[in-house]
Structure formats: structure tokens, C-alpha cells
């Protein structure tokens, strides 16, 4: 009997993985006030590992306090957090062969923390998503952040993570340095595609120095800016090549500077009229499904030019699609965020023979509640939709709740 390609083992660097399905980085809004891991967060990782996914990318962890994105985000900015992070890795490793990478990030000027007036950006340009504008960082500050990424990688290894995944996409600090729209510098960090690579390459170098050589280092990379006139895929593919030369073992393909969260998490993927009716989405009854695997063209551009493992994220919603992508070597792994919010045991179900469409309809209610409520699907059980409606009607989603 031939197994489905998505259930076959795979490898990143020297690490063996039990299948080709990755839980994409998904910030959980479950940490304590100083970014520490909570019982709730451990329980989620436990559920995901028990649910069969081969590799978990953690939600983005801030490597410096001023690089925090949202309230109740988990952190990796201090040695004091290592024991708490170890709880996560222990929970995952309890489930034979399951692996977990720490996703390391710095929010740059995209931070949504009210009152965070200590942010960092390459240049004083309003952030395309948050509108925040901060002074351009001095070279000294930039070197400080590079060291913070290195120290965070060391902590990840000490906490028992199986690898480190750098967040170089979705508009955060590394994306800002990579983008001609956000980076107007004329020193060694800006002014040409090669200079825009420099911050990322210094971060990767600092991390590679701190990580034991057997631990994989992977990268989520932004391939194009959402606003017109920004980063183009050709520049990003060249950047990916240099990142691989600097020791990156796999690349996850994503968007760069964003104007809306849906630039990364597109809505209503694979939702046809029948699914719209069963999931109570009247606004979708008369519209065709949005396409799956929406970052595939960038993955193809990467495959044509760079020899690396490709992790494809963004709108994987049917077994037929993920099977074809893997069989045709368009991707070596497929990553999913929202389908695993709704069905954390999806991979176990696939291993038991389930085929067809996954339940998540990409309505993005989970994304709207980031920083407000713990990560969950708001469509199931159905009463959650009522909870959501009440919170929204009271104006709860209009601004981020203050402080921790
Ligand atoms: C609630 C939520 C939180 C997310 N948090 C992160 C994150 O911490 N790091 C990251 O790289 N991407 C994050 N993303 C983006 C996802 O990793 C993924 O790239 C995107 O949702 C598209 O994949 P999907 O169609 O499988 O959801 C988040 C997405 C959602 C919906
Ligand atoms: S709220 Fe549920 S159905 Fe909607 S995108 Fe999130 S996981 Fe999918």
C-alpha cells in the first residue's frame, strides 16, 4: 500500500521528522505578563503533538522586550524564561518523534502594544500595518538587536528546542530591513538589495554562532511587499540564496510588508457555497472559493534558483492539494496555521485515513482576537460565535487591551 506523501518522513538539516506536515507559527495570546509560558500554552502544544503534526513552529517569540508584538505574547528575551520554555519542549517530546522549533522575532515598528514608545525601525516611515512611525535605529542599536537574536537562539537550544525558525516575513523588523519601502537607509544596512540583506545575514550569523551545529536553522522569508513599488520576488530569491549560504536549512515562503493581516492569512480559502452554508457565512454564498496554496508562485521562483528545503504555508485546505504539492516537489513540507487551530488533531485524522477538505473556513475571527483572547477557533463550538459578537458589539476589538 502506498502511503500519502504528507505522511512520509522527512528531514530538515540533520533532523528526522515523522511526516511532512508542520504547524505554522501561530501566536497564541496565552503567555504570562513577562512572556512566560503558562499551563494553557503547554496544554496547547501537548494537544498539537498528540494530534500528530511532525513539527511545530512556535508562535513568534520576542527576542527583546521592545520587540514585543502583542499582549500575552510569549518571550525568549531573558535567561529567566528558559525553565518555562523547557516545559513546552518537554510536552512536545513526550509524543514520540514530534519536534518543535522556536520562532524568533522582533516586531519592529509593527508592535501593537499600546504605550510601547521604545520601538525600532530601519527608517522613520509609517508602518504599513500599524501606522506607527519611529526614528531610524542607530548602528549601535542595530548591533544590539543582532546580539539579542543570537542570545535568543542560545536560549532556545538550552530550553530543548529542536531548531530555530527566524521570522523574516509578515512586516516585522527583518521584513522592514528587507523592504525598499520601509528601509530608506544609505549606510551599510540600506540603499541596495545587498545592503538590505545585511541585517538578516548578521542575525543569521549571530544565531548560527550560538546554536550547536546539529540544530537546524530555518527562515520564514517575505517574498514581496503588499503595497505597490515595494520588494519584488527576484530580490527576495537572491536574498534566500544568500541566507542558505549563511547556513539556513529550510525556507518558509510568505509575504513581506503587509497592509492588512489578510495579506498573510487570506480569507475564505476553498470555501464554496455548501461550506458557506454549513459554516454560517452568508456573505460567501454567492462568491467562488478563494484559491488554495496562494504563495505557490513564490515557492516556484525559489525552487528554480535555490537548492533548499521549501516549507509552503498559506491556504492548504485539502488532502488533494497537499499531496500534489509534495509529490510534484513544489514543496518539501506543508505548513498550516488556521486548520490546526480548528482541528489540532487533524494529522492524526489524516493518518487514520481521512481525506478531502479541512474544516477551517479562513474566516479570520481567530486572527481578529490575537492579543485579546487565547488562541481558539471562534466558529466551533457554535456558542463562541455569540461570545465573539458580544465582544465586538461592545467595541472590544477596536483597540488592543492595555498592558500585559
Ligand atoms: C491567529 C494567527 C496568528 C499567527 N501568528 C503567527 C506567528 O506568530 N508567526 C508567523 O510566522 N505567522 C503567524 N501567522 C501566520 C501563519 O503562520 C500563516 O502564515 C498564515 O495564517 C497562512 O497560513 P494558513 O492558511 O494555514 O492559516 C498567524 C496567523 C494566524 C491566523
Ligand atoms: S476562527 Fe476557526 S474557522 Fe475561522 S479562521 Fe480561525 S480556525 Fe478557521
Give a verbal description of the structure:
The chain is an alpha/beta fold. The protein is 33% helix and 11% strand. It has an eight-stranded parallel beta barrel with strand order 3-4-6-7-8-9-10-11, surrounded by seven helices. A two-stranded antiparallel ribbon has the order 1-2. Strand 10, helix 9 (319-327) and strand 11 form a beta-alpha-beta unit. Helix 1 packs parallel to helix 2, helix 3 (139-158) runs parallel beside helix 5 and helix 5 (193-210) runs parallel beside helix 6 (233-245). The N and C termini lie far apart (52 Å). 50% of the residues are buried. The mean pLDDT is 96. It binds flavin mononucleotide and iron/sulfur cluster. The site of iron/sulfur cluster has 13 residues, from helix 10 and helix 12.
List keywords for this structure.
about 400 residues, 13 helices, binds iron/sulfur cluster, 11 strands
Bound molecules: flavin mononucleotide, iron/sulfur cluster
Portion in helices = 25-40%
The N- and C-terminal alpha carbons lie at a distance of 52 Å
> Which strand order spans the largest sheet, edge to edge or round the barrel?
3-4-6-7-8-9-10-11
- Beta content comes to 5-15%
Number of strands: 11
**Main β-sheet: number of strands, strand sense, barrel status?**
8 strands, parallel, barrel
Amino acid at each position: 500500500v502506498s502511503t500519502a506523501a504528507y505522511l512520509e518522513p522527512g528531514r530538515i538539516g540533520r533532523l528526522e521528522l515523522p511526516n511532512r506536515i508542520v504547524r505554522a507559527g501561530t501566536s497564541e495570546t496565552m503567555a504570562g505578563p513577562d512572556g512566560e509560558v503558562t499551563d494553557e500554552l503547554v496544554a496547547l502544544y501537548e494537544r498539537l503533538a498528540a494530534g500528530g503534526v511532525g513539527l511545530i513552529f512556535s508562535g513568534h517569540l520576542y527576542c527583546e522586550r521592545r520587540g514585543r508584538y502583542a499582549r500575552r505574547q510569549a518571550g525568549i528575551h531573558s535567561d529567566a524564561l528558559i525553565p518555562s520554555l523547557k516545559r513546552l519542549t518537554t510536552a512536545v517530546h513526550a509524543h514520540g518523534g514530534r519536534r518543535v522549533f522556536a520562532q524568533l522575532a522582533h516586531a519592529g515598528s509593527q508592535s501593537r502594544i499600546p504605550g510601547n514608545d521604545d520601538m525600532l525601525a530601519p527608517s522613520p516611515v509609517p508602518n504599513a500595518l500599524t501606522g506607527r512611525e519611529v526614528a531610524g535605529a542607530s548602528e549601535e542599536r542595530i548591533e544590539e538587536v543582532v546580539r539579542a537574536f543570537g542570545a535568543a537562539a542560545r536560549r532556545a537550544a538550552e530550553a530543548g528546542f529542536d531548531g530555530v525558525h527566524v521570522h523574516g516575513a509578515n512586516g516585522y523588523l527583518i521584513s522592514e530591513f528587507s523592504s525598499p519601502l520601509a528601509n530608506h537607509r544609505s549606510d551599510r544596512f540600506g540603499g541596495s538589495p545587498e545592503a538590505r540583506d545585511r541585517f538578516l545575514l548578521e542575525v543569521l550569523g549571530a544565531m548560527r554562532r550560538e546554536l550547536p551545529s546539529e540544530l537546524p536553522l530555518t527562515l520564514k522569508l517575505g517574498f514581496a511587499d503588499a503595497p505597490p513599488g515595494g520588494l519584488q520576488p527576484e530580490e527576495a530569491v537572491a536574498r534566500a540564496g544568500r541566507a542558505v549560504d549563511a547556513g539556513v536549512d529550510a525556507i518558509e515562503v510568505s509575504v513581506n510588508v503587509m497592509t492588512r493581516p489578510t495579506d498573510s492569512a487570506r480569507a475564505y480559502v476553498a470555501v464554496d457555497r455548501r461550506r458557506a452554508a454549513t459554516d454560517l457565512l452568508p456573505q460567501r454564498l454567492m462568491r467562488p472559493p478563494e484559491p488554495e496554496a496562494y504563495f505557490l508562485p513564490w515557492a516556484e521562483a525559489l525552487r528554480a534558483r535555490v537548492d533548499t528545503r521549501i516549507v509552503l504555508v498559506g491556504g492548504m485546505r485539502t488532502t488533494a492539494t497537499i499531496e500534489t504539492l509534495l509529490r510534484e516537489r513544489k514543496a518539501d513540507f506543508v505548513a498550516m496555521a488556521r486548520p490546526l487551530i480548528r482541528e489540532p488533531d487533524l494529522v492524526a485524522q489524516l493518518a487514520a485515513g481521512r481525506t478531502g477538505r479541512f474544516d477551517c473556513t479562513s474566516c479570520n475571527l481567530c486572527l481578529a482576537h490575537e492579543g485579546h483572547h487565547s488562541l481558539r477557533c471562534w466558529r466551533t463550538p457554535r456558542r463562541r460565535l455569540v461570545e465573539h459578537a458580544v465582544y465586538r458589539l461592545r467595541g472590544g476589538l477596536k483597540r488592543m487591551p492595555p498592558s500585559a
